User: Fold Small ribosomal subunit protein uS13c from Cyanidioschyzon merolae.
Amino acid sequence: MRIAGVDLPSQKKLEVALTYLYGIGKTLAKEILEACQLSPDLRVRDVNDEQSMRLRQYIEQKYLIESDLKRVESMNIKRLMDIGCYRGRRHRALLPVRGQRTRSNARTRRGAKKTVAGKKLAK
Assistant:
């Protein structure tokens, strides 16, 4: 089954397979299946065409997923950078945005360590 350009793995249960879509986690997958009146234990390969269409239409109408969601997220970050707010400046400087410390740690955001030579002691 294919939703929003993503092939869902046929051997997985529907609840797990939906999490392969960017923007859909376990909780949202459960809600979607409940709204579409599908069993979470149903395997993707066992879903018939009618159920598949119902699921696809529900997801596309109700939620932003995959490239649409990524585009909205990147536009939100770009907007923050354009208006020059604190969060935008942190994004632009590639520093942690949510108040994490940077004196130590923050290696994920800042990249590999760049060693700076210490001061020489006078003798």
The radius of gyration is 22 Å. The chain has a mean pLDDT of 88.
